[in-house]
Amino acid sequence: MAINIMSDFRNKNEQNLVSDLIKEAIEQRGTDIHYILRTQLNTDYILGESSMSDFTDFFLMPMYLESMEHYDNSGMVWDGFGRNNMDAATFEVSTITFQNVMSQNTDLTRPREGDLIYLPFADSLWEITLVKTDQKYKQTGINHSWRLICKLFSYSHENIESNTETDFNSLGTQATIGILNSLGLAPDSLMDETELFKSETAQTTADFDPNNPFNY
Amino acid sequence: MTPLFGLDNFYNNGAIKKYIGVFGSIFSDIYIQRVSQDSTRTDAIKVPIKYGNGNMYVKSDQGEEVDYTKISRILPAMSFELENVYYDKSRKTNQFNTISQTGYTTTNGVNNRNYQYNRLPYNFIFGLKIRTKNLDDMFQIVEQIIPTFDSNLVITLEDTVNQVNSNQEISITINEIKMDDDYQDEMKSRLIEWLITFELKGFFYKKTITGFTINTANLYFGDIDNPPVITNTSVPDISITTQDPITGKQEILPSIATLEQGLFASADLKNIEAITGTAPKIRPTLGTQ
């Protein structure tokens, strides 16, 4: 037995109406974020990664911060490597907005896993780990929004800089210095204790050069 | 019972911290390299290392400019911890052997030569954790480390803290390598973590004892009930001329260098004679006592 034909909203006008309403709602209650495209520079199809990536294309668009998760009520894990921020967030972006913004410069039709989101009010970087369709699973026949499951970005010396429309400054080609300055992190945020070990060892070793431990 | 501990018996050789410092410095200059597909760009990245244990108020940067909510973490990184210490009886030697100071120190005109009774062989298990975001980064790090320990890495340490100034050789070997890669959890940023377990063959040291160098040796030969003093010499003069009181035959002893080893550190024979009224009976086989 089929549904009542008068209740079938899967027609073009209804679809456009819902899309426009979602777009407007996100513009009302959302916030401007910077969508940052990943450019893979040495893609390895066996290992499934690109260890060298540039993030230099920034696109401003409104997104709705749907949820913010702090695991263990803190989101922070303290281990042998220092602090690890485990926070997760879900952003929602209208398909119309996304396509309008991106179609001007790219051929991207949907958000991609691996791209970044810069949240200006929190001054934080998020990596998209999963892209989902809207929560209603296309009940009107089309997808009206993308839900972006994000984790705080694990920075691994990628080059992140932009000359356009963002708060980031172009700070030279050295990726580490660039990101540390861009995010306001001090260089010692790397928590490198190399010099401490070297000075400790210099007092005790007779034939071991801590500056050249492998005799290169 | 003689007290085993207490302030009078306090000593601290600081061996464990030395081993931690040495172990950390081995891996303190590891780099990885990333080359773009078209070879026009090469990034050299230093892999930082830290000792994992510690309080957050020391180990974390709490400056105003640091905001840990901006990103999750910075990779690649290495961290190590001392995980286990156990006795290695295969390296055990005579506990009455001594480790003596090389040379001597002079304090208030008295020459002192410090020594310790034999050290205890213990193995120190270190776990080196390596975290990267890319497998290629991990491979580069590990492929630099593993060949270096073929089959072990021997480092000579010069002890300058425990007043003995003796050198010790420690060897470090790789025990095992564990790998972890949580790529299946889409709710997390990918994290690759390998754990390399090392075994450092080290030692625990006993308390340093202040000994004395021998400046004078009194040697008695012949009639043990009425011993004449044959010679009286300082240690640097290692040849001694003796004369048999019966035959009158003169003889040059080969050496008394073994006296330098501290065996007679407190044997002032004259004092023994003065206290006991009897001269000590010593046969001319000095080197074997």
Overview of the structural elements:
With 216 residues, chain A is α+β, with helices and mostly antiparallel strands. Chain A is built from 4 helices and 12 strands. In chain A, the strands form 3 sheets. Chain A has a 6-stranded antiparallel β-barrel. Chain A has a two-stranded antiparallel sheet with strand order 2-3. A two-stranded antiparallel sheet of chain A has the order 5-6. Chain B contains 4 helices and 17 strands. In chain B, a hairpin with a 6-residue loop joins strand 1 and strand 2. The radius of gyration of chain B is 30 Å and the shape is elongated. The chains are: A alpha+beta (216), B mainly beta (289). At the A-B interface, strand 2, strand 3, strand 5, strand 6 and strand 9 of A face helix 1, strand 2, strand 3, strand 4 and strand 5 of B. Strand 11 of chain A pairs parallel with strand 4 of chain B.
How would the blueprint of this fold be written?
The complex is a heterodimer of chains A (216) and B (289).
Chain A: H1 12-29, E1 31-40, E2 43-44, E3 49-50, E4 53-69, E5 76-79, E6 82-85, E7 88-94, H2 95-103, E8 116-119, E9 124-132, E10 145-152, E11 154-155, E12 159-160, H3 175-182, H4 194-202
Parallel strand pairs in A: 4-12
Antiparallel strand pairs in A: 1-4, 1-8, 2-3, 4-7, 5-6, 7-10, 8-9, 9-10
Chain B: H1 15-26, E1 31-35, E2 42-46, E3 49-51, H2 56-59, E4 73-74, E5 77-87, E6 98-100, E7 105-107, E8 110-117, E9 120-132, H3 135-148, E10 153-158, E11 167-181, E12 192-204, E13 209-212, E14 216-220, E15 229-234, E16 240-243, E17 250-253, H4 269-276
Parallel strand pairs in B: 3-5
Antiparallel strand pairs in B: 1-2, 5-9, 6-8, 7-8, 8-13, 9-12, 10-11, 11-12, 14-15, 16-17
